[in-house]
Amino acid sequence: MKNLLLIQNYLKLISKTQGFTLLELLVVIIIIGILAAISLPNYINQIGKARETEAKNTLSAIAATQQAYRYEQQTFADDINKLNVTFEMQYYSYSNPAAGEVDASKVKHRAEALNPTSDQVKNYALGVYYNNGAFDTLVCQGKDIDEAVNVPDNYSDPCSNDGIRLE
């Protein structure tokens, strides 16, 4: 009998102290909402940077294969398909050099964002230059999202539209 009374008293004590009040739950939900509001833009920005890194890596691969092609053919390739490079075109389109952008001394390519605003990515341009047996490679980044950029005709000149040089 004594044990039964102890168990009943213990159960009453537990039932009174279990659970959260509505105010406590609201405070926790508000704190989680504030943390999400702070961290979500940073998370989206990091996704954009990862996509931009993928574009820069693809342009680096194009530059390396253009150098190899130039070494073998004495001129740069006027078509990406001649380079036998495969890459994803999920966030960027990679252009063939336009007329006047390819010859024995230089070649230009662009990585243009397919959905720059929603993907939060910038445009890029690649220039590979050959001078006196040496190669120089220049990558220009658009100053802002969805801003066009191009590499100069000479390695030492600045990028178009105040683009950022990423040598």
Shape: rod-shaped
What would you report as the Rg, rounded to the nearest angstrom?
29 Å
User: How many distinct helices?
Assistant: 3
Q: Using DSSP, what is the number of strands?
A: 5
Low-pLDDT windows of residues: none
Number of domains: 1
Distance between the termini: 86 Å
Give the amount of beta strand, in percent: 15-25%
Q: Briefly note the structural class of the backbone.
A: alpha+beta
Biggest sheet overview: 5 strands, antiparallel
Helix content: 40-55%
User: Which H/E pattern describes the elements?
Assistant: HHEEHEEE
Mean pLDDT: 88
The strand order across the widest sheet is: 1-2-3-4-5
Word description of this protein:
It is a single chain. With 167 residues, this protein is α+β, with helices and mostly antiparallel strands. It has one domain (21-166). Helices cover 43% and strands 18% of the residues. It is built from 3 helices and 5 strands, in the order ααββαβββ. It has helices spanning 2-17, 22-73, 116-119, and strands at 92-94, 106-113, 124-131, 134-141, 164-166. It has a 5-stranded antiparallel beta sheet, covered by helices on one side. The longest helix has 52 residues, at 22-73. The mean pLDDT is 88. Keywords: Membrane, Methylation, Transmembrane, Transmembrane helix. The chain crosses the membrane at residues 21-44. InterPro entries: Bac_GSPG_pilin, N_methyl_site, Pilin-like, Pilin_GH. It is a single-pass membrane protein. This is Prepilin-type N-terminal cleavage/methylation domain-containing protein.
